[in-house]
Model the fold of this input.
Amino acid sequence: MGRPAVSDLHDALDDMTGLDWIPGMSKILAGFREAAHAAENGQFTLDATQTGLTVLANPEGTDLPNLISLLVAHLTGDTNTTLAQLDDPTRKTVQLHGEHHVHATADYTPRDHPNEAAALIYEAAERRAQAMTHLDDDERKELSDKVRKVNKQSESRPR
Done:
């Protein structure tokens, strides 16, 4: 299985250009673009990355695939008053397709890999934090001296 290129996401977002006439679509796409830009520019913290992955695919709770499927059900169901313009059999079939989508999303959308990635990030961050707190006095003094030296060399630090 090939790894998706960074440009794949940007290409997919570009393919959605022009759909701004659909209520809310420009904001959804802007959110995806903003998240991609932040990741590419080092603006995602480890915590934000871990949480973001969980929001994108969470086997234990609400996530974006679930949210999207519920919006599909909302758009295909009685909540979309525009569908009242359709004849009854068509409207009921449209609603059934929306309901099938919710169930198929719940049952068949894989969510384990982003969740596993989030868990690995969490575990690595915890190990890193524990390594920093388990320094002995000499290691702590050495690290403190290094920080002090770097701070003295910094040109942007107020004197």
